[in-house]
Hints:
This protein is α/β, with parallel strands linked by helices and 185 residues long. The protein contains 7 helices and 6 strands, in the order βαβαβααβαββαα. Helix 1 (18-32) links the parallel strand 1 (5-10) and strand 2.
Amino acid sequence: MIRMNIILLAGSNRKDATSTRLSAFVGDIISKSGHQAHLFDLYEKPLPFYSPDDEYDSTDTISELQKVMRQSDAIVLATPEYHSSISGVLKNALDHLGQEHFRGKAVLSMSSAGGAVGTSSLQQLQAIVRNLHGINSAEWISIGGAQRNWFAESHTDHEGSGGEVTERIRRVTHSFLELASRIKG
């Protein structure tokens, strides 16, 4: 098995966001599969607004984000779905990054929606990943409605009665890891 370094970019500016909890859950699956998972939480590490006229590379959080993204073997992007789109916080973070952070890497897109599912945000994430020359995972993860409720509760061990949704997340995460391993290997 090839040991990989995987970055999970949690794109919410809300404390205890379900998309961030989903990221932690997936990070747990990745770690238990023998890989290194690093959660970069944009709530805990907010970034300044991107502007092509300003130099932000010298700020600590931008430098840290760019470094961990460059060093990653694969990427997980997580967003809440707002008005059928990705969060502004995640879009801002992606604007601070470029092709050198995504090129040739497997990327798993995930969303947490207030409604049943968040496919609009996932389609937008996949378009962004293509433009950054990343390789989209064939499947994505979207939680909404009752599925989202399990992540809204406090689950420190990420085990328990998540039911079908947690099994689907595990299956999709393992499929993503297989893709990332084939690309790296």
